[in-house]
UniProtKB/TrEMBL annotation:
Provenance organism: Desulfofustis glycolicus DSM 9705
Keyword Membrane: no
Annotated InterPro entries: CBS_dom, CBS_dom_sf, CBS_domain-containing, cNMP-bd_dom, cNMP-bd_dom_sf, DUF294_put_nucleoTrafse_sb-bd, GlnD_Uridyltrans_N, RmlC-like_jellyroll
UniProt xrefs under PANTHER family: CBS DOMAIN-CONTAINING PROTEIN CBSX2, CHLOROPLASTIC, CBS DOMAIN-CONTAINING PROTEIN YHCV
Name under which the protein is recorded: CBS domain-containing protein
Pfam families linked: CBS, cNMP_binding, DUF294, DUF294_C
GO molecular function: [protein-PII] uridylyltransferase activity
Keywords assigned by UniProt, alphabetized: CBS domain, Repeat
Keyword field contains Ion transport: no
Domain CBS: 180-239, 247-306
Length: 645
């Protein structure tokens, strides 16, 4: 392989460079005068096919390389000397920006795959553009974030996970359109139930789509083998009745290009086994839970079925122990932290729902409507393997003293039994006793309204800090309207009392990231976690806090951190590029945490949040440092909104 010894001193023709800039994003948005000034400083260099232009860890990156013609490959060489292709870039694209932005040596090898001409923009002028042209900086910082996140996810999976078997897990690479085996079979809505059942048997399928009478293209419902069992056989319905009487309508659909993982989440959250597949404006097929389950061994859907089929509470106890195997499979396939935490949340929600359903069977119907609230990481759907019980209970205000006494007795029994059984399922009690089993957090709606009024309207900084766990609540079971009404009350309260958010913001602004003056990690000096840092307290929680404050300020009802960042960006409350960078950084922090905890579980240890930076790769350490820098940019946003008095 030819190596690039040095950059030529050949100055590019300014007119050629300006013409290139005019048709190349993001230079095409710069003023003509700026383009001509830049062109005078650019060089033009030629690299024959097979030339290694940059060498990871060795080459100084002194130029932004803009590909005028030809193409290059970007790859990482692992410890065994194996090339791992990261990217291919051709005419109109670039490389070298990451090293300049990070002020580091090249982070990947770059070699030409054909004869290539590059326009070279010196580092000095590239950095000036980043400082003076916001849209220009946004473009390259977004690319930097995407590259780094993609590379880091790949490296995390490759280095931290060892395959237990040779099966390919395809939830994150296959779309629904890739896996459906046949076109949908449809019947007229007037066809008899008996004829429809015969057709299903003949075609060896478990469902039929039903179209409007005389209009084959208008799908109005679906029937499944379960409908035949429950709505016909069990109900004693006549077989000569039209199939329209037993169909489910409207048909729940999913786009053919949807990832199988997202379809799996949809099935789990809605408790369904069949979805119609849309392509263009037509329904073309049906995808089933069995189709999805066939893609992986430790299927989340299989665990879900085990949970909902339990008729004894003790049968739920061992099921939480199966979550690590399910999560491991998702991580191994390529799931990001947001995928994993959503899946964990859905499984945990089903355990809770089944448990409380069985408890209601034991205790009888509740005297008034109630809602089991999920708080903290449970409320944000950001649970990992280390998940305490963070919950509360709100119930409708009783109408009289007798009903008040009944409610107090019933919900005391319900909450205490639930806490006991959840502990046996593997969810330990909250150390701070923020649980429905504690009388203070098991109250009528009016008391909860008073709680939030007190927290928002008082100016005691410590009480404000202690109350933050309650502001990420969501409905976990029961009457969702109680949680929705409480959220509406909270939004109205905060709009009238901004001092509450001022205190929250000033607490976040007082935080110093765990980086020294020389940008080294600040770790524990003594004790059990010597040489380690708490990635939750010093990293993840910081992003959670900022997203919460901004969401409360602007009335965003989402509780998930990534969802909050997206809504804030979509509604124009947070710069889109910064929100994207913050989302990527948060994902990486959660990914590090999940992999750290999974490793501890596989070694039969207890999961914690304390990682040793020395155990990370160079890329992971760079990403971790970058996440702290992004947080500092978020602090600047808060400082602008809530300046010191």
């Amino acid at each position: 392989m030819v190596a690039a010894d040095k950059v030529s001193d050949y100055r590019a023709d300014p007119e050629i460079v300006v013409a290139y800039f005019r048709k190349t994003v993001p230079f095409d948005q710069l003023d003509e005068g700026v383009l001509r000034s830049l062109a005078r400083h650019c060089k033009l260099d030629f690299y024959p096919k097979g030339t290694r232009i940059l060498i990871a860890g060795e080459s100084e990156v002194n130029f932004l390389y803009l590909i005028q013609s030809g193409a290059v490959s970007k790859y990482i060489v692992d410890a065994q000397g194996t090339d791992s292709l990261q990217d291919l870039r051709g005419e109109g694209q670039f490389f070298g920006a990451l090293g300049i932005i990070q002020r580091s040596r090249a982070n990947v090898d770059v070699k030409t795959v054909e004869d290539t001409f590059c326009i070279l923009l010196p580092k000095r002028y590239f950095l000036e553009l980043l400082d003076t042209q916001p849209h220009f900086a946004g473009y390259y910082l977004k690319d930097f974030s995407d590259q780094l996140a993609h590379t880091a996810y790949s490296e995390l999976r490759r280095d931290k996970l060892k395959r237990r078997s040779f099966e390919d897990l395809l939830l994150f690479s296959n779309t629904v359109g890739d896996i459906v085996q046949r076109q949908a079979v449809t019947v007229d809505a007037r066809v008899t139930i008996q004829a429809a059942a015969a057709l299903m048997s003949e075609q060896r399928i478990g469902s039929l789509l039903v179209h409007e009478s005389g209009r084959p293209g208008q799908i109005v419902g679906i029937i499944t083998d379960r409908d035949l069992r429950v709505k016909v056989v069990a109900a004693g319905r006549a077989l000569n009745r039209p199939v329209a009487e037993i169909m489910s309508s409207p048909v729940q659909t999913v786009l053919s290009q949807a990832l199988c993982f997202d379809v799996l989440l949809l099935m789990l959250s809605r408790g369904i086994r069949h979805l119609a597949v849309e392509q263009g404006d037509r329904i073309v097929a049906v995808v089933t839970s069995s189709d999805i389950m066939s893609l992986q061994g430790n299927s989340p859907y299989h665990l879900f079925k085990e949970i909902i089929s339990q008729d004894q509470i003790s049968g739920l106890y061992p099921l939480a122990q199966k979550i690590p195997d399910v999560v491991r499979g998702l991580l191994k396939e390529g799931g990001k932290a947001s995928h994993i935490t959503r899946m964990i949340a859905i499984i945990n929600d089903h355990v809770l729902s089944r448990l409380l359903t069985l408890l209601e069977t034991e205790l009888g119907s509740p005297p008034v409507a109630y809602c089991w609230l999920l708080l903290g990481s449970e409320g944000r759907r950001e649970q990992t393997f280390k998940t305490d019980q963070d919950n509360a209970l709100v119930y409708a205000d009783p109408q009289n003293d007798a009903q008040r006494l009944q409610a107090k007795h019933y919900f005391t029994e319900l909450a205490e039994r639930a806490a006991y059984h959840l502990a046996n399922c593997g969810y330990p009690p909250c150390p701070g006793e923020v649980m429905a089993a504690s009388p203070r957090w098991r109250q009528p709606y009016s008391v909860w309204r008073d709680y939030f009024t007190s927290w928002v309207c008082r100016s005691d900084p410590q009480e404000v800090l202690n109350s933050t766990i309650f502001f990420d609540f969501r409905a976990g079971f029961g009457e969702n309207r109680l949680a929705d009404e409480l959220r509406n009350e909270l939004v109205t309260l905060i709009r009238r009392q901004d001092s509450f958010l001022f205190h929250l913001a000033r607490q976040v602004l007082a935080v110093r990231t765990p980086l020294s003056f020389f940008r080294n990690f600040v770790v524990e000096k003594n004790g059990e976690y010597r040489h380690r840092l708490d990635i939750k307290r010093t990293g993840i929680a910081l992003y959670v806090d900022v997203a919460r404050i901004l969401a409360l300020r602007y009335g965003v009802r989402e509780t998930n951190t990534l969802a909050r960042l997206k809504v804030l960006a979509d509604e124009g409350h947070l710069d889109r590029q910064l929100a994207g960078a913050a989302a990527d950084s948060y994902e990486l922090l959660m990914q590090l945490r999940l992999l750290h905890q999974l490793g501890q579980l596989e070694e039969k240890g207890l999961p914690d949040n304390h990682i040793d930076p020395a155990d990370l790769t160079d890329l992971e350490r760079r990403m971790l440092k970058e996440s702290f820098r992004i947080f500092e940019r978020l602090q600047t946003v808060l400082e602008t909104i809530y300046p010191a008095p």
